[in-house]
Each structure stands twice: as C-alpha cells, then as structure tokens.
Design brief:
Layout (H helix, E strand, L loop, with lengths): L13 H11 L3 E2 L11 H12 L12 H15 L9 E5 H13 L5 E6 L4 H8 L3 E6 L9 H7 L4 E7 L11 H13 L3 E5 L25 E6 H4 L7 E5 L2 H11 L8 H11 L3 H25 L2 E2 L7 E5 L8 H12 L1 E2 L1 E2 L13 E5 L4 H16 L1
Parallel strand pairs: 1-11, 3-4, 3-5, 5-6, 6-7
Antiparallel strand pairs: 2-8, 7-8, 9-10, 10-13, 12-13
Helix pairs in contact: 2-10, 3-10, 4-5, 4-9, 11-13
The protein binds pyridoxal-5'-phosphate (PLP).
Length: 385
Amino acid sequence: MNGPGPARRPQTTIFTRMSALAQRHGAVNLGQGFPDESGPSRVIEAAAEAMRQGHNQYPPLAGIPRLREAIAAHQRHWYGLEPDPDGGVTVTAGATEAIAAAMLALVEPGDEVVAFEPFYDSYKACVEMAGGVLVPVRLEAPNYRPDLDRLRAAVTDRTRLLLVNTPHNPTGTVLTRGELEAVAALAIERDLLVVTDEVYEHLVFDGHEHLPLAGFDGMWDRTLTIGSAGKTFSVTGWKIGWASGPAALVERVQAVKQYLSFASGTPFQHGVVEALASDDAYYREFAADYRRRRDLMVAGLADIGFTVREPEGTYFVTCGIEPFGAEDGLEFCLDLPERCGVVAIPTQVFYADGAVARPEVRFTFCKPVPVLEEGLARLRAGMRG
Ligand SMILES: *Cc1c(COP(=O)(O)O)cnc(C)c1O
C-alpha cells in the first residue's frame, strides 16, 4: 500500500504480506486481528441449520428482516438508540463494505474527511476511491488521546464528514464522554456528517464505557453508525456488518452497496440473528476473557522490554520499540518472524504517510492464552539475543 502508483488504486496490504511471512517461518501470528477460535457453537449451528433449511440464495438488499430487527433491538438495548429496521438499518459485507459504501455515498470529489490517526487502513483507501482527501488528526504517543484543538483546526470549509473509530484500532483508546461531547459539538457547529466505526463496541475494559456518537444531543440525524458481528462473535470470516441511522443516510449507503456486493452471506445473516440474541452474560464474559488476555500481553511485553500503553478497548496493544534501539517498526516487523518466530504489524501502515518509519508495532491478543504465552516466550528468547 506504500508503493508508487495512482493513489486511487490501492496495493497489497501489509496484512497479506505479514501473514505470508508468518506461514513461511511457522511464526506465531500476532499480526492480523482474527481469533483462532470460532464463535459460540449455537451461533455456528444456526448458520449451518440455515444452510440445511435452504437459506442459500440472495438475501434482500438491506439484509434479512429478522437480522435488521435484531440489529435495531441491539442498538436499543445497549444504547437506547432506535433505528427503524425498515429503512434505518442495512446489512453489509462486513464493516469494511459499510465503510466503503458510506464514503462512496457521502463524499464528493474534493471533500475532506477528518479522522484520527493512526486509522484503520481501509479509511484512506475508501476516501480516496470516492475522490476525497483524508485529513489526519494525530493521537500522540504515549497516551493516544485526541487533541480537540487540533481536531477543530483540521476542519475547513471543505470538510464533509468526521470518520470516528472508538474503541480505536490500533491504539486501544476508548473516547470518553467528554471527548465525544466535544466531537459532537464540533460536528453540529460545522454541520458535518459523522460516520462511526464501532466494531469493538463490546471490547471495552475496566471502567471504560463505549458510547455511540449517534446518541448525543443533535447527532442522530447526521450520524451513520457502523457495527459488525466479526469481532464480537469471533466470526470474522462471515463478513456480516451493518450500518444504522436515519433513513436518509442509510438509503444513500444502500444505493451504493447495491453495486458493490449487492447483498451477501444469507446463512451467516441467520447465524448473526442467533448471535445478537445473546444474553448480557455473553458480552460480559467476552470482555472479561479478553481483559485477561490483555493483562497477560501487557505484562509480558513490558517485562520483555517494550514500551507498553495498556489498551482501554479492542484486542490490540501498540508498543514502542525504542528500548531495543529500534526506530523503524516496518524493519523490526519484517525481521521478527525469522528472529523470534512471531509476527506483529508496524503501526506506520495506519498513518496517512505510511512510508515514514515509526518506532511502534502492534500485537493482537485475540489468540488463545497458550498461543499468547508461546508468542511471549519466543519474543523473550529472541529479543535477548
Ligand atoms: C476489523 C475492523 C473492521 C472490519 O470489520 P469487518 O466486519 O471484518 O469488515 C473495520 N474497522 C476496524 C477498526 C476494524 O478493526
């Protein structure tokens, strides 16, 4: 993605490259964020049963009605939001398609889209495919909190929308109520659309709380909320995501989506109906389980010598590599499979200028505890040498 060539024609991503390296070296892959374990068996069974029952043809463009209702019920239950299941919810091929369709639908050539940097790597590609310009506002190490004055300064007369990801990949920052209030106030003052990426909404630790921007005063009509089953139910390969919000925005996204995937994953949509019927205990245990894995990784990486900032949410931890005398995360990560038998992702790929070296890498902890322990043991041995 960093090579030469037209900006609007994206290149192979770092994830593909690093996963290939992982295979070649038999490395423990703590790079790309997909769990090794499948989601709850009742969810898997619901999808299998849907296939056996013959739910194998195109679903409706907006998604099967039962899933749209389940998504609306989820938004109401957790956040008191009330998207209309008929018109205010559309099911997509993962959050990835929802982001792409939203950018293509809402961004005009020359428009600016402001996003906190580092950002999920598809943001810039999608904004550019829409002919827009991504304007990054940096979350600075070591705390990766938003600088609201900088955010305000980044908004110009050409700004069309704010693209906000919380809980935030790769830093693990969860925006606070106060920070979100400031973002909302700015969106209202400058009459901006807001697209939120909330795929880690249920992966929030300790006293932190996930709050959708759509629920803040004056925000509903200007906000498109994006979610996904992949992370919450450990079914990333199903690629079932959704966008919800006011019908006027959702309709525009749907109009684009009909020429991307049109619609996808009928049996998986049935599986996600079952997933969203989970009781609160499922979500609680899910977060508690990941909290234990986070604690293991944070303690282990710090002990090995990385500079670690404890993530408040997501299943990623971003670490500084300067204690090892390293300054270039990409070089470090390209070397790591051979040196330690571990794969990590250089955070520079999450920056607008992805070619600039940065002394940081990202590990995921969405792997079983023994795999995390093995990864830590290999790092401990390899980084000593
Ligand atoms: C994983 C991820 C996505 C993509 O979600 P899918 O449902 O797998 O398409 C989007 N945004 C962020 C921040 C992610 O980490």
